[in-house]
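User: Could you go from structure to sequence for me? I need the amino acid at each position, not a summary. Structure tokens:
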């Protein structure tokens, strides 16, 4: 499964430690949707998987960013997510 790192107010948050079941369900939903799209993707140069970084001031304003070992992997993952979403202006960077 793809790794998801979450930051709220600049501090890492483990989805298992979220205050409410709704927050945990939201994060799990993001993880599952992302995993189904790019979970098997690996960098052709380094063999690494992409990571989805979620950051923001509050859970309801989190922004998502694809990170990885190199720009090639980030571009591959971002393109796949945009294709899956069906939008050219996907909020994932």
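Assistant: Here is the amino acid at each position, in order:
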């Amino acid at each position: 499964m793809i790794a998801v790192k979450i930051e709220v107010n600049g501090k890492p948050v483990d989805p298992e430690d979220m205050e409410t079941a709704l927050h945990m369900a939201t994060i799990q939903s993001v993880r599952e949707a992302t995993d189904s799209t790019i979970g098997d993707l690996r960098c052709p140069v380094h063999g690494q998987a992409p990571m989805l970084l979620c950051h923001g001031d509050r859970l309801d304003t989190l922004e998502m960013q694809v990170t990885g070992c190199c720009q090639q992997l980030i571009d591959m993952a971002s393109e796949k997510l945009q294709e899956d979403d069906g939008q050219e202006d996907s909020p994932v960077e």
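One structural detail worth keeping in mind: Residues 9 and 57 are 5 Å apart (CA to CA).
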